[in-house]
Design brief:
The chain has a five-stranded antiparallel beta sheet, sandwiched between helices. A four-stranded antiparallel beta sheet has the order 7-8-6-9, sandwiched between helices. It is of the alpha+beta class. The protein is elongated and about 75 Å long. It contains six helices and nine strands, in the order αββαβββααβαββαβ. It holds the Pfam family Diacid_rec.
Length: 231
């Protein structure tokens, strides 16, 4: 679960929102330090109201410049995700004019945070599949408890007979298009009912399939849709 907004993502967000609205925008951490801003001079400086907003969890509007340390008029909006305060977004300007852009920046941030979490989950699933397939194929002795946990997660019956399937990409295939090939094979495996598979760099797809599925049937369907050599 994402618990903070990293500097790079925050800077991308403030730049994007400023391009849209024209107002300067800051990301402020829990201690009141500005860690991303469309005004480079403010990065690393203290923002008193930003700290107060983070501590209270409430949006604070400032109507005059320099009333508080390091603060200009504007809106300071805490961003929450899964009940946790991630950062405070501050937009410089008259509150009535910039309020809607603060909420826009908040929505963009939450969407990108969710995207990060989905990508992290996908990577985690991919890593687990790679671990299981390579451990079984290479007859390694992995942590059996973890292996059993992974098999259960992927709904794989450890007691049913299985086969290994190795798909080798033709050496003449342009690896620039590898991501497209991976997508096609992923779709076909899903249709066939194969859930435990991985890619082994540079040219092999490895899968563990139920014996009941039948290797010949799998090869026929794959050859019909994707050009490669199987073994």
């Amino acid at each position: 679960m994402v618990t903070s907004v990293d500097n790079l993502l925050a800077q991308q967000i403030v730049n994007t929102v400023k391009d849209f609205c024209g107002y300067d925008i800051n990301f402020i951490n829990r201690t009141g330090i500005i860690f991303a801003s469309t005004n480079p001079a403010r990065i690393g400086t203290f923002h008193e109201i930003g700290k107060r907003a983070a501590a209270s969890g409430n949006t604070i509007e400032v109507t005059q410049d320099d009333t508080f340390t390091g603060t200009q008029q504007g809106i300071n909006l805490p961003i929450y995700h899964n009940g946790r305060m991630l950062a405070v977004i501050g937009i410089t300007g008259k509150p009535d004019e910039v309020r809607k852009y603060a909420y826009l920046a908040e929505r963009i941030t939450i969407l990108l945070i969710r995207e990060q979490e989905i990508n992290a989950f996908s990577r985690s699933q991919s890593d687990k599949k790679h671990f299981v397939v390579t451990a079984l194929m290479r007859e390694e002795k992995p942590d059996r408890e973890y292996l059993t946990e992974c098999l259960k997660e992927f709904k794989i019956d450890p007691n049913s007979p299985k086969r290994f399937l190795i798909l080798q990409v033709n050496s003449r295939y342009n690896l620039v298009n590898l991501s497209l090939l991976e997508q096609k094979i992923h779709q076909l495996f899903t249709q066939i009912g194969i859930t435990l598979f991985t890619f082994s760099y540079p040219r092999e797809f490895l899968a563990v399939i139920e014996e009941s599925i039948g290797v010949q049937g799998v090869q026929t369907r794959l050859k019909r849709n994707v050009r490669f050599e199987s073994k």
